[in-house]
Design goal:
The protein has 154 residues and is of the alpha/beta class. The chain is built from 7 helices and 5 strands; from the N terminus they run E-H-H-E-H-H-E-H-E-H-H-E.
Length: 154
């Protein structure tokens, strides 16, 4: 029997860290018997906003910013992998560049994910209207079931 594929999408936020912890603690058996992929997106608009502070951005500046962003993403994935290892779970990691909501859904489809787990920033309706909601987009557009984990308010 083929193993199920589960993907947890993370970023630097506390809510995504909580979602990973929650999944490992509450879905432990299911996660340990599945192929677990920890995924993070590297937003492209951030690169151009950062580079535009210098006027017309030279290509080597864009490359430098992309490299630094990739290093940060790999460090984030490395920390997530360590958290998984503490729970006895071996995880694969991957990162893609692009709009997080799009690349998360595309990666889930491309890798035939059977369960996508995302955290929720718990934004109100006005913030969601202006900032958008990655978790909401994934719920409505991913080709697999999506579990949204919301950190309890303390």
């Amino acid at each position: 029997m083929d193993k199920k594929k589960v993907m947890v999408a993370i970023d630097e936020s506390e809510c995504s860290h909580y979602a990973l912890q929650w999944a490992l603690e509450n879905l432990g058996d299911a996660i340990s018997k599945s192929d677990l992929i920890i995924f993070t997106a590297r937003p492209t608009e951030f690169i151009y906003v950062q580079a535009s502070m210098f006027g017309a951005a030279p290509p080597d500046l864009l490359m430098s910013i992309q490299e630094n962003q990739k290093k940060a993403a790999l460090a984030l994935l490395g920390r997530a992998k360590e958290i998984c290892a503490k729970h006895g779970v071996v995880a694969e990691t991957m990162t893609e560049m692009g709009d997080p909501k799009n690349v998360i859904c595309e990666a889930a489809e491309k890798h035939k994910i059977q369960l996508l787990i995302v955290g929720s920033h718990s934004r109100g309706p006005i913030q969601r209207a202006f900032l958008g909601s990655v978790s909401n987009y994934c719920v409505h557009n991913a080709k697999c079931p999506v579990l949204v984990v919301r950190k309890p308010v303390e």
